[in-house]
Structure formats: C-alpha cells, structure tokens
Amino acid sequence: MDFNDSPEEAAYRAQVQAWLKDNAPKKNAGGDPEGGDTMAASKAWQAKKAAAGYAQITWPKEWGGPGGTPIQQVIFNQEESKYPIPPNPFQIGLGMCVPTVMTFADEDTKKRFVGPALRGEEIWCQLFSEPAGGSDVAAARTRAVQATDGSGDWIIDGQKVWTTGAQFSNFGIVVTRTDPDAPKHKGLTMFWVDMSDPGIEVRPIHQMSGGSGFNEVFFTNVRVKDSQRLGAVNDGWKVSLVTLMNERLAVGGPTGAGWSQFLEAARGVAGLDGGPAIKDQALREKLADWYVQTEGLKHTRNRTITALSRGQTPGPESSIGKVVSALQMQDLANSAVEMMDQYGVINDEKLLPLKGAFHWSLMYAPGLRIAGGTDEILKNIIAERVLGLPGDIRVDKDVPFKDMPTGR
Question: When you count CB atoms within 10 A of the terminal residue's CB, does the N or C end of the chain come out lower?
C-alpha cells in the first residue's frame, strides 16, 4: 500500500481543501452546525456541491459530474468529513438508485431524473426487502401484472419493509415478481415508481434507538407505465445486481462513538475500586482489541483506496468492513453503557458523556448488522469470493417460484 498522495492527488486535495474552507458549513457558538432546518440544509449543501462539480465526482460530464476518478471522490469525502456537514439523505439515491436508472432507463428518463437528483432537488429510495425475504432479494413476492386493457401498463401489489428514507423520498426503484412460473432469480422485473402515487402507503417504523429511518411500504393497485421498467421483463435480477454492487460502495461503516471516545469516557468514569475505570485491566484489554480492530479496518480501507488510486476495481474485501465494524460498534457501546453504571440506564444528552453517543450506538448497532446485507450474507461473500471456499448448495435453483415452500 502507498499511504502518500501522488503529485496529482496532492494537488487535487489542496484544491478541495481550499473550496471547503470557503464553502463548507461552520459550527455556531453552541458547537452545532449552522442552520435549523436539517433537510433544507442538506439540500442547500448538495446543490452547492453540484454547482462546483463535487456532488458525484466520478459521474461523466454529460450527467452533471466532472468525470473524475474514484480516488478523487475518496479525497473529497476525506476532507468533507472534517466539517460539520448536514445529514446526507441522497446517499442511497445517488449511490444506488440513480446509477441503476442511468444504466437501464431510456434517454428521456435519464434526462428527467439524473440532474434533479444530483442537485438534491429529488430524493430516491430502494424498495427491495420484504417480510418474507430480506437479504434474499430474489425471494420478492410483490407482484407486477400487465394490465388487461391493452395499454401496456403494469399493476403492482405487495409490501416492502426496511426501506430507508421512504418517508421523504420522491421516487424509488422497486423489484417485483412478474413470472411466478420461473425460478426465483428469473421471474423478476424492476420499475421506478413515484412515491406520491395514491396507491403507495409509507409507514415509518419506530426503532429502539428512537429514530424512524426505516419504513414499511405498501403497494395497492399501483399503475406504472411500461416506460418505467428498468431492464427487460423478467431480467430484474440482473438489474438488481447492478444496484447491489453499488450498495457495497454507497453504504459506509458505522458513525458512532469509537475506541478513542471510549478511552475519553473511561478516564472520567469511576471503576469498581473508586479509581478511574481506565485502570481496570479487563477494560484495558478490550480497549486494546478495539484499537487493533480499528487499525485493521483502516488499513483494509487503505487497500481499497490504493486500488482506486491505481485505477483498479476494488474487490469483495470491502464486505469485511461492515462485518467487523458493526459488531465492534455493538460490543463497544454495550461495554460503555455498562461502565457508566447508573448513568447507563438513562438517555439524556445533557448528563451523559459525548451527548449519549454510546446509548445511540447501542440501540442502532443491531439494525446496522442487518442493513445492507446481514452478517451471514457478508460472511458468505467473504468465504466464497475472498477465501475461495465452495458456495452453498442451492436446492431451489431450478424450482418454479410458485412451487417453493413458504414455511407454512
């Protein structure tokens, strides 16, 4: 690995640093980012980045990007993370949905959607997971049937779940079952949908972390035109793979409190003997483990960055990051809450270290171990594609979907 910027990368980093210094949001006197309306602030920041060519650096100029390199995008992300930028509700749309539209939609559809999404004017969501099939995308039961009136339209009925950001999304991409007589991977078709359609109902799911980022989405007689189809009929699995490959790059690691924040808290919390908790040997051993894990993750990401810098395509090793970091986040947060003793059972930002970051991480981490591919799915990817182990035997490979057991 080469940890140093090339001369070209160093020049680009200096350019990015100068632009961010003049344009990035600043913290107010209270230490919080400027701006009260979070969504308005997010859209304003996205529009400013788009105007300067920093919204999607690798996108070609014809679609509003500068046609830059992946390593330039990495450099911008690194420098942007140093500022108190608003939340990014565009990550799924720009990282997963719109690239799928750009690959499979007709020219009119691309022209209609790519620019507004890039500028933050419209938000997209991904409608894949269902109650009977989460990480197994091909188990989708939401059905699309062609209308009988000769219009060529499709009627969609079914349910999706765990859809991030559906409550504020304008559009979405949905994978549907169009041929139940075909094996499950061969009878799927994908469409884009307008989330304001009266047949689409979004119900936010209240999470134990206190947030409601995930949603149930119900489709009832939702009529879509054939021009909203992405890819060929019954070829939706191929389209879905494009989305899922982009997901590995679009979904980042945990953002909760890490080992260094734990160290900070342990210095100010009393241990069992009345002294600082950091003096406890068992706690110090855990801290050492988390530090080693964090360094391993950092250098695994550095391998990906090095590949991008050399113009290479990163491999499936990126799956390692979420498997390790999500579990570490859960373990670290649990230990921190236990360490706080009586303060571990309350959740008050004014009283708790780091404004309750450990409490938030503890409640958020279990969902992170599911979102973007469960631990089990990612371990299979690592085993088969990194370690070269044989794949699981699929007894349902050639079975028509309608004949597959449902578990009842």
Answer: C
Strands 154-160 and 143-146, sheet pairing: antiparallel
Whether the per-residue pLDDT at 280 is higher than 90: the answer is: no
Q: Count other Cβ atoms within 10 Å, centred on residue 365.
A: 22
Kindly indicate the confidence band of residue 386, based on its pLDDT and cuts at 50, 70 and 90: confident
SS3 label, residue 26:
coil
* Confidence (pTM): 0.84
**b/e per residue, 235-259, with b = 16+ CB within 10 A?**
bbbebbebbbebbbebbebbebbbb
| Domains in the chain: ranges and CATH | 7-88 (1.10.540.10), 124-249 (2.40.110.10), 252-370 (1.20.140.10)
| 3-state SS assignment for residue 30 | coil
The answer to whether 90 and 120 are in contact (CB under 8 A) is yes
What are the DSSP calls for 208-274, one per residue?
A: TTS----EEEEEEEEEE-GGGEESSTT-HHHHHHHHHHHHHHHS----S--HHHHHHHHHHSB-TTS
Two structure tokens written together for 21 = 């210094």
Angle formed at CA 328 by CA 326 and CA 333, multiple of 5 degrees: 100
| DSSP summary character for residue 188 | E
Give the DSSP letter string of 276-331: BGGG-HHHHHHHHHHHHHHHHHHHHHHHHHHHHHTTPPP-TTHHHHHHHHHHHHHH
**What does the alpha-carbon distance between residue 223 and residue 156 come to, in Å, rounded to a whole number?**
6
